[in-house]
Amino acid sequence: PDRKLYDTVQEAWDAEDVAAVRKAATEAYKSENVEVRQQAVDALAWFGEKTLAELTPMMVDADADVAESARDAWESALVDIESAADRLHITRMALKVVSDAETLEMVGSQFSDAASELIDEEEDEAKAQRYRVEVVQTLVDLIGDGLSSERAVQAKEIYESVTCNEWISAEEAERYLRDPDGYEPPEDGDG
Q1: Which of 4, 33, 91, 176 could form a disulfide with 183, with the two C-beta atoms 3.0–4.6 Å apart?
Q2: CA distances from 103 to 123, 134, 161, 163, 189 (A)
């Protein structure tokens, strides 16, 4: 069965059929065979941004080499996406999937960059505020989900990067969102 999966991925890749590669790679990724999973990553990487969703779970592969290949391919493909809103959406989804510190740091950095770009470049203040709320709410959710302490640490770092405020609590994040320009963090002992 592993050889057949490998060949199916290769045939779809040779045919340059992105839909077939997605389907075959998703099946191949379930294989216990490292070579088959690596083949899936390689095929998906060739299609770049079109296969980011399929590459995302592969960034946490049990095999370090497969995971690293997937991370490299994912990061390279993300660069080709011009829209900060699209990059933000993709990285938000990835933050919910990955859990190891190295991958979280890479994805978190990309999320932070996309969020800052989207918010800072928006000329309509109401839209910029909506983006800010979405970003901060995503981070508060990631911090509070309790699924990964590494994810919470990374989300706090992103929060601090995006808001230029130290993470204190979800309540303080909500205070910040009500008035980002006038927000004053509590003094020591007040929070």
Answers
A1: 176
A2: 32, 22, 18, 22, 35
CB-CB contact of 45 with 80 (8 Å): no
Give the separation between CA 13 and CA 32, rounded to whole angstroms: 21
Alpha carbon distance 43, 12 (integer Å): 9
Q: What share of the chain is helix, strand, coil (3-state, %, to 5)?
A: 75, 0, 25
What letter would DSSP give residue 50? G
Write the DSSP symbol of residue 128. H
Residue 141 phi/psi, 5-degree rounding, is -60, -45
Conformation bin of residue 167: beta by default, left when phi > 0, alpha when psi is -120 to 50: beta
Q: How confident is the model over 149-186, as pLDDT tens digits? A: 888 999 999 999 888 899 999 999 999 988 888 899 88
How far is 155 from 40, CA to CA, in rounded Å?
30
* Entry pTM: 0.83
